[in-house]
Amino acid sequence: MIKPQQLIEIGLITATLSVMLGESVLATSSQLKTNSSSPQPTPIIIAQNSSNSEADRLLNEGVQLFQQGTAESLREALEKWQAARELYRAARDKGNEAVTLLGMGRINDLLGEKQTALDYYNQALPLYRAVEDRGGEATTLNNIGLVYDSLGEKQTALDYYNQALPLYRAVEDRGGEAGTLNNIGLVYDSLGEKQTALDYLNQALPLRRAVEDRGGEAGTLNNIGHVYSDLGEKQTALDYLNQALPLFRAVEDRRGEAATLNNIGLVYDSLGEKQTALDYYNQALPLRRAVEDRGGEATTLSNIGLVYSDLGEKQTALDYYNQALPLRRAVEDRGGEATTLNNIGAVYSSLGEKQTALDYYNQALPLLRAVGDRGMEATTLNNIGLVYDSLGEKQTALDYYNQALPLRRAVEDRRGEATTLTNMASLQRSQGELTEALVNMEKAINLTEELRSLAPPGELRQTFFSTVQNRYQLYIELLMELHQQNPQKGYDALAFHASERSRARRLLELLAEAGANIREGVDPQLLQQEQSLIQQHNAIEHQRHELTRGQFTQAQIDALTTQSQSLINQLNQLQTQIRVVSPNYANLQYPQPLNLEQVQQQVLDDDTLLLQYYLGEERSFLWAVTKDSITSYILPNSTEIEAVATPYREAINLDNTTTVAQGLALSEILIAPVVNQLNNQRLLIVADGILQFIPFVALPIPSQPDTPLLVEHEIVTASSATLIANQREQLANRPTAAKAVAVIADPIFESNDPRLNSQISSENNPPSLDNLALARATRSLGLGDTAPQLNRLEYSRLEAQNIAELFPENERIKALDFEASRYLATHPNLSQYQIIHFATHGLIHPVNPELSGLVLSLFNPQGESDNGFLRLNDIFNLNLPAELVVLSACQTGLGREVRGEGLVGLTRGFMYAGARRVVVSLWNVNDLATSQLMTRFYQQMLNENQPPIIALRQAQLEMWNSGQWQSPYYWGAFTIQGDWR
What we know:
There is one protein chain. By secondary structure, this protein is an alpha/beta fold. It contains 38 helices and 22 strands. This is TPR repeat-containing protein. It comes from Limnospira maxima CS-328.
């Protein structure tokens, strides 16, 4: 049977729902069989000594109907077994009468008729005892336990399970023993005793395998996965659930398959991957309806409602909850009913209808106590506390939080504990109890860091981290308030460290993984699967691109989009698996965020000032850090800063008449507070939120509105200060590549390009990579939802020629036209060059960074379509130990903004591939102006022997001082990321 157990809450964090599989058994007087919680149990074996052939026939027909698993077939089976029972009873065949009663009890249990099920089981029990059938007795005791379990009477259920277990062992029925061990584990899980639950489930699993019960094995794997999910060990949970799913499918157990799909959805939901969660729920729902599993259907409907609530679609969420609630009641699932009532209350609370919310919570609470669900009880107590908190009844709110907290701890709900601690800290802060609040927030942050380490490595860990950023925000707020009260206590240094802990952790981990070469030693089959998925995805994207360029229907586009997203999800899952099984990954130690003293020692020098920004809902902060000091400043909240930054960003992105002075209002907020500390130093900017899209080089000096910061300062950007130190350590002893520069520019984008039908001059003959023929890939990548106009960038040719002329011929490669190809960009020999320069179109996908990339030649000399898109997954697979990668293209510094992680895009891909520093752009750059800027940039590096940061600054200054290119629109887009040394 399907056993729902859920955790849902509102507040600073939304917790999860979960579903587990129970176990029930059908038996005969001579043999017992267990099933995998599906409505299609192992066929009953009829006692060989039965003398009533008509009764035997009815019993067998009932078994066949039972195996069909629909409500109609179950009711027909019930009629058959009722008739068989009367015949066995008349013949005084107590053993087989007990079999029919057991089956009739199971059917009524599945149909939600719990009391009727108990009646039948209680009639079967003395019959089994009368014929001394200890196996049948054990099965009946187990099934009675199941009914009490589903009714929330956990201790009574345990009593029956513990009577069944020694009987199964006495008759050496390992299958029955496994089922009861599984069920005992489920009870302990529902009581919050997670480790005890795992102990029982891990006793059941090898027994399942020993008797080759694949369905039962799947059920126990599913249940173990659920427990690990509750414990916050999401990767381990996914491992178990992904073992269960194919087993359920192999035995055609749709009920179990649906439960596992639902549980996988729960894991993704808890990690913040809402769309992926919906995909799994929407696979589970029709399966549950097909097998008429009303309880399971209610659970999945409630889970879907929770996702829509988290997405802000409150009315849609209510619609799903209101579909779930009557189903909960129909199957007498009091725990599930309480969960849905809690969820409805959460929606009304978020809509501001606090009294209505309390009404629903107060309906849920006694039900949860009645069924002994301490975890869900804690959630509801937490939510009631939030309502009273919002109503200003602080002491009442604190009373509820204090009731919730020990329950959280008792059931080992670390995420829930962190949520309640955060809520308590927020309340205490509002009452001026800052020290008490800080103690609770430090506990909450430590729990959060622990949970983050247990989340699946890769994108899921990043997404999870984005969902808990409000905790870091409150922590920083508290520390800065304490700093204002006690400026000498070092709270500002702690706040700075908290800021470092809150940002770019995924990028730090990626660079550590790159240094460890985590693919080394991995099963080649997994790596081949990865490449296969990438190729499949490329093919789908190519089809989608081709459709958007011609005649198409929206249905066609939507179908391909769905396939594309599915392949991305599969690829992310496989890459997580590659990490987990990598021998190098197992021994990898991730770098920890640096504290203030470490940043001062490992990152800064006497000439560098770090300006680190943190945007908050209430107020924002700026820390100005030198090698021996820290000064902190309070700035307006994020909404106020965005109101000033957004129009400035839009203007400078689009208008070549924009002047430096137009950024004065923003500069007054961001730069004026610290202007007296600037002192012509190099500025290391660690931005946040919308500030990541702002060209700090173009902001005016507050006292000189027409003069950009660029005039007095070198400016470097980074996603965190720790990143600089990490790069330095990792690349400290790396040898410099043997050759100077590879320039890839002016590709062929369109079929009507005249170069497809003309002889290209000898000056632009294909460059050689150690005289290897440039074989072409046969697949093309698409461009996303629409096909943008890819005009030729003719000045990129001039840019490439000017750059190439600065280097000796034997130290360079210049790839133009057809040779500006993906093949060349991914060729291993490109690792021989110190500088890699791309002058082409850049494509940024704001939702799926995997679709971002650079556009290279889309045709070969024969006019055939060529794979010309170098996407982010391709870049991650490159080996480019370059000192500098220049992305002279549009928006290459942008990407999907992930809270706590910054902009996820091309920069991290090239850094992962080995680049020490990357030059990128913040908007759609002008072709001719970019050609001029890049030529000057390389002239400074080569002719004046300047390092990249100084060279870029000098080139931008030359553009600003020229009459033609003075607007920052022409030169301000480019910024350098990485180490300046």
